[in-house]
Amino acid sequence: MTSTKPTWFITGASSGFGMAFARYALDRAYNVVATARSVGKLEALAASAPDRVLVHTLDVTVRSEAEQAIAAAIARFGRIDVVINNAGYGIIGAIEETPDAELRALMETNFFGAVSVTKAALPLLRRRRAGAIVNISSFGGQTSFAGGGAYSASKFALEGMSEALAQEMAPFGIKVLIVEPGAFRTGFAADALKYMPAMAAYETVIGGTSDFAHSMHGNQAGDPYKAARAIDLALNAETTPLRLQLGADSVAAVRSHAEQMLKDLAAWEKVGLDTQIDAVAA
């Protein structure tokens, strides 16, 4: 039987943003499909509202698991309204310090994992001609910094895919929202950051980034529950933005980056335009 309540399908729901999104949705009387590679931490969530929570194992890097989880959600609730691609992790290290295998593994989770879940859900959303895909990026999906190149590369890719997807889904009435959080009080800094083997050559370049990442755990200003509320507000707005910055740090970083891009564009516009093939005299 199809539920009349909205259903949120959340990846990486066992902690951090994912758990906050799930708790917010339950407080709003929504149904929740809470997925994670390890679902042990989701037992209490399921027990809190057994009629409205489905817990399902999902490693987003395994395409068949994404399809199975989506099918299980439909079997349980009859519909999915919002897919939140939240599963992911970060890397701290210079590009030269980051082994190819680490970069590829990061892309498999942060980018290809989100693509797999999205592609598994799209046929269902298109048939209903309704719903939303929410891709959790970062302000690091708009701008990057020394030591954050690998992570930003995965989020830049996610944002590029999402921007095209938004245009592809518009005729079907499906919304696409890119969320760009700053620092929020989650376990990301403690549990979801990998530090690459340091090279002495980059100590003065990367050291500050590494120290900041270590120090920010437990000190972040952002409230993950309020992030969930902001996402819900954006999805239910008459005009949902393509990108939603969350947190003063994200707003400031994205604004500064955009202003610098416009400044460079204006400064070099004449050079850029002076590249056409010269007209051949008759």
Give a verbal description of the structure:
The structure is a single chain. The strands form two sheets. This protein has a seven-stranded parallel beta sheet, with helices on both faces. Strands 5-8 form a two-stranded parallel sheet. It is of the alpha/beta class. The N and C termini lie far apart (74 Å). α1 crosses α8, α3 runs parallel beside α4 and α4 runs parallel beside α5. It has a single domain, classed as Rossmann fold (3-Layer(aba) Sandwich), CATH 3.40.50.720. The model has no long low-confidence stretch (mean pLDDT 93). It is built from nine helices and nine strands. The protein is globular.
Outline of this structure?
This protein is α/β, with parallel strands linked by helices. It has a single domain (7-248), classed as Rossmann fold. Helices cover 49% and strands 15% of the residues.
Task: Summarize the SSE layout with pairings.
Blueprint: E1 7-10, H1 16-27, E2 31-36, H2 43-48, E3 53-57, H3 63-77, E4 82-85, E5 90-92, H4 100-128, E6 132-136, H5 149-169, E7 175-181, H6 188-191, E8 193-195, H7 203-215, H8 224-236, E9 243-246, H9 248-273
